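We examine the record.
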Amino acid sequence: MRILYCGDIVGRSGRDAVIKHLPDLRDRLSLDFVAVNGENAAHGFGITADICKQVYNAGADCILLGNHAWDQREIIGYIDSDPRLIRPINYPPGTPGRGETLIDIGCGRKVYVLQVMARLFMDPLDDPFAAAAAALATNRLKQEADAILVDMHGEATSEKMSFGHFLDGRASLVAGTHTHVPTADAQILDGGTAYITDVGMCGDYDSVIGMKKAAPIDRFRRKMPGERLGPATGDGTLCAVYVETDDATGLAARIAPVRVGPRLANAMPDVAAA
């Protein structure tokens, strides 16, 4: 199976990059499944129902959120109606929405997607390790699902890497999001799980993690409240990770970065037609 996971969409630049490049990537890489993190898609903060539809129409099969899940209040009333939109599973019981989804992609194949939010330098949610272990106890590779994608939305690289090793052998891919900077550690762990600490963002990299530069620079210099942060509006780059799984085991056979757009060095795996 060929899977693509696109990092956090930040504002219109990120949306435009995904809408522009994703249809071509689906064809060029012969993708079976595409997931996208959309938690910063609406002017940098949260997501709306209309943006969800735009991302689905571009070729996404699933959208994941994160710590900005509720920034657009309308999503609270929408999320329960969209089984392909998930937020971290370790939110407290009673939180709207779901933290996992099992998607039928046809030909008898299913992909299970799970998201957790880290706790170091993040909101103090329930234990992400315990939540993931409980979820994967009943959603197993090559039993309930042919491939399993797990997103850990978090700040600390140590927590993300620990989590990746914790799930090694139980997921096809464990990918970090949230820091908006693509890491260079895409690898297959000893147990066969593909791993990357952060996929990076889909957005304008002439920025401070997707935001216009002046306001965050001023905040760091003066340590005072200032201009409200807003997303940078230049041409966006799509950052993603590509994974091929072994049909027999559901584990990873290959992982490679994907970057399309200005400023960052572009990266594209050499893939034979399916």
Remarks:
- The longest helix spans residues 11-28.
- The chain has a mean pLDDT of 96.
- DSSP finds six helices and 14 strands in the chain.
